[in-house]
């Protein structure tokens, strides 16, 4: 899937727009009303500990097991 995403970006936007990394997740962190928690997404993308995510839905912060980071698991 990662190669397919990179190829699509190359084809549609050009190689200059290709991201350095692609993270695949099962769910995105959202508030109870369904809004995305952009700060939590950034924290996860930077491999920092999530800290207080009390405003998110229970079980809403996950990392894929196939994320390429050594020693990390689903939170």
Describe what you observe in this structure:
The structure is a single chain. Helices cover 27% and strands 0% of the residues. With 75 residues, it is an all-alpha fold. The protein starts with a helix and ends in a 30-residue tail after the last helix. The C terminus is likely disordered.
Task: Give a brief rundown of this model.
Helices cover 27% and strands 0% of the residues.
- Uncertain stretches of 5 or more adjacent residues: 65-75
Q: Give the end-to-end Cα distance, rounded to a whole number of Å.
A: 22 Å
Count of alpha and pi helical runs: 2
Overall average pLDDT: 75
Briefly note the structural class of the backbone.
mainly alpha
Biggest sheet statistics: none
Q: SSE order, as H and E? A: HH
Fraction in helix: 25-40%
Q: Approximately how much beta-strand content do the residues carry?
A: under 5%
Over all CA atoms, what is the radius of gyration?
Answer: 14 Å
Characterize the overall form: elongated
**How many E strands?**
0
